[in-house]
Design brief:
With 192 residues, the chain is of the alpha+beta class. α1 runs antiparallel to α2. It has a single domain, classed as Jelly Rolls, CATH 2.60.120. The chain is 15% helix and 40% strand. The chain starts with 8 loop residues before the first helix and ends in a 7-residue tail after the last strand.
Length: 192
């Protein structure tokens, strides 16, 4: 059942349903990336107005749909100028992320070492993702940051998670290139 009606919602959900019916995680995320890029460019699919409203003190997360049949969730994120995330994971879930509007900087990280409850990561380079682009994360390659580099405009991304994304691990720098892990509960912003 759609939790929010918007133009093209049924088409978007049908495309996602087809993609998640693939046999393995790689095939699913490949099909989702292709479908998401197509939907972003399809002018008959328009996200609800609330998605274009930013929150001043955090990036906004709005659930647009959760599939009872397949278990996946669709979250729209609105990034104000300069808003971003620390290094984080997706709690072991695959995810496909597409840029609906604006541009985002995405930096994947490789976990190199854990010692005494601390973590060491290496950056795998920053990608500048523009409107219509999509990428996927499949554990254990799920560590990354996302940031809106703009000084004056919002960015909007659509995230399709294998399940409900209610919490994740975030990693804060400590000393000597090491990070401390913390569990973060994720909340949703209003969709009106």
């Amino acid at each position: 059942m759609l939790s929010l009606e918007f133009p093209g919602a049924r088409r978007l959900v049908d495309e996602i349903d087809r993609a998640v019916s693939q046999q393995d995680e790689t095939a699913i995320t490949d099909a989702l990336r292709t479908a998401l890029c197509r939907m972003i460019r399809d002018e008959s699919v328009r996200l609800p107005d609330c998605v274009f409203e930013r929150a001043n003190d955090h990036y906004a997360r709005r659930e647009l749909y959760r599939s009872e049949e397949h278990g996946y969730s669709v979250i729209a994120m609105t990034w104000g100028p300069g808003q971003g995330t620390p290094i984080h994971d997706h709690s072991g879930m695959w995810c496909v992320e597409g840029v609906w509007e604006g541009a985002l900087e995405v930096t994947p990280y490789e976990l190199m070492e854990t010692r005494d409850g601390r973590y060491r990561f290496e950056s795998r380079g920053t990608m500048n993702a523009g409107r219509g682009s999509a990428g996927s994360l499949i554990p254990p390659h799920e560590y990354h940051t996302i940031r809106n580099p703009s000084e004056d405009s919002i960015a909007i991304s659509l995230h399709i998670y294998r399940g409900a994304m209610n919490a994740c691990s975030v990693f804060q720098p400590t000393d000597g290139g090491w990070y401390a892990r913390d569990e973060r509960k994720l909340s949703l912003d209003r969709t009106h």
